[in-house]
Amino acid sequence: MTEPLIACDRLCVELGGAKVLDGLSLSVHEGDFLAVLGPNGGGKTTLLKVMLGLVKPSSGSVTVFGKEPGQASGRIGYVPQRLDFDRSFPISAMEVVLMGRLSRKKLFQRYGREDRQKALEALETTGLATLAGRRIGSLSGGELQRALIARALAGEPELLLLDEPTASVDPEMKTTIYDLLDQLRKQHTIVLVTHDTGTIGRHVSRIACLNCTLDMHEPGSTLGRTALEKLYHFPVDVVEHRETQTPHRHA
Amino acid sequence: MPDFLHFEFMRNAFLAAILSSVACGIIGTYVVVRRLGFISGGIAHTAFGGIGLSYYLGLNPLAGIIPFSLAAAIGIGLLSRKAKIAEDTAIGAFWAAGMSIGVILIGLTPGYAPNLFSYLFGNILTVPDSDLQLIMGLDVLIIAMVWLFDKEFLAISFDEEYARISGLKTVALDLLMLCLIALTVVIMVRVVGIVMVIALLTIPAAVARNFSHSLYRMMAVGSLFASLFSIAGLWLSWVFDLASGATIIVVAALVFLLNALFGAGKHRRTEC
After folding, report:
1. For the domain that residue A11 is a member of, what is the CATH number?
2. What ipTM, to 2 d.p.?
3. What CATH number has the domain spanning B3-267?
């Protein structure tokens, strides 16, 4: 078995004295499409921030690409949950996507032709090429979400980390974003966190349920009502987890 | 040549107004998009301690303002970003402490402090050639830094977390930007004084934002507006014999008000 891209071992995180993640062990391998499900406040975003090196664990260990988190920024594409920004910020979608190239550039090095090319390709992949010159604040919720995915893609990452990519978009756009992820999984390892239990099972290769502690569910199993109710503390839909096409890159 | 430009002090005043507007538009753009208005006010007022120190030691006031404003920028920046002190608390402490040090040192200096008022409210009519050269030098420095760090400054302004994930040293970049604000404050103290710096750091760039689709354009348009406000204010102060710095601010504030009243509605309509 190859070395995992992400390995968490008995990871604990405390924020402001409260335990947010408790004894979490998890590994993500190349070609995985892992969905981390859980209620709001269950530590999903914190888990991603630990992987990105933004939050330090209080105990346990995490490695990303075999290194300390935050040391492999060029290989990770991050799509934040909601970008809190000033909608009147004078910046075009293209300029935002170009930011995805930051981790590949040195200080004082300016964005060049190749960076623009990659940014444009990312905009094409996400179907936003015609909106490249638009002010970012004038995009709709779904367009903004795809612009943020394009920004992550522009850096040519191996691993994509997505935080609630469908939280702030309407149902139709949700399908578009899942279709996009189906396409992206062919070339990227994906970790996605969501509280959306609806359609996720059809798309991913593994599901983890996170509410401070973690339960793994491998393909073929059905995440039963009891497991989900234990997770959410109230009745939710059953998540059926069918095996989809094998996602491995170098089959 | 218009009659008021026959006087050397008026020519210097106009030059100072235009040169300082360059820094104002560029750095003001960051102040507006990153909402650093209050921290800029804090840096400016802390600099009063530097004026006091210069009086006490008998130096050129600018010799005290530069180190004091830079120390304020780094001090407020580090306290609020590293020591987990709320930023407005850090700003408030520096703001008042700087003013107090200034007042005490001026009080300790024997004799009368005649030009004090001009540093609080500006006196653009007494700008000597040496100050013009200093303003020009600081302009060049500010433009060079913004050119060198343009993608980094854009990244921390738009999405600081993403900049950090991308491997940027965001705290260091942030402190650098605060230092550039401090240098702009030094320039503006001459023109409009410590108390009113904040208006010229925010109003021209805020008005420019309505006409700009990129940060660069906002900087250019902001500098243009700052020049227009300063020149119009200077001219009006000459014609009606008013305090020059205050007149510049009133002109800026009027345009800002008109822009907010009429521009905002129009802006919203064209956006969709």
Report:
1. 3.40.50.300
2. 0.87
3. 1.10.3470.10
